[in-house]
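Narrative summary of target 7.
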Amino acid sequence: MKNTDFMLFFIEVSLFIFLCGCTPQSDPAIGQSGFKDDFERETLGAQWNNTGGPYEIRNGMLHVQGARNKPLWLRRVLPRDVRVEFDVRSDTPDGDIKIELFGDGVSSAETASYTATSYVVIFGGWNNSLNVIARMDEHAKDRVVGPSYKVNPGQTYRMKAERRGETITAWADKRELAKMVDPKPLSGRGHDHFAFNNWRSDLWFDNLAITPIKSAE
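Modeled conformation, tokenized:
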């Protein structure tokens, strides 16, 4: 293939990827049927991008402890409005259950300081004292702190987080943890992935379900 032909081919492929709305890592979009993962297998597989944390499957569940803000990104593009649900248990008193919504699918902490590319949802953070939704920086003044509701070690919760328009809300067992209204919502390429995250708590995740939210709901 001549250099000019190669360049034309490269441009055409790049344009196709752009028009399809794919991410730089060419992850497929979550369709109307949604996405589910019950972790009933031995390894995470190619649909997950581990950025360096000790994520592993044990007894049909996703386990992590001590990831130090190195997320496990799902290689799927989220719809604009979406509901994410999963079971989770913390086996340490500090609670600290953490996920990321609408991030870039690849970022992780390079140092002790970490600024996310997403909305960070935290249940029982800061030694089980705060429930938070943050826009990229979980320590920033614009984070939203919800009602006091601690994580009980050993208890399994059904957590849910969703975005509808400008509003991001998180719940644990149908109890609202926090709600954020963002007039400039994170969206588009670089803000379209989901991740499990962790600092040092001992966490077990299961039965992930991601469902597009239709405007009529």
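The longest strand covers residues 202-212.
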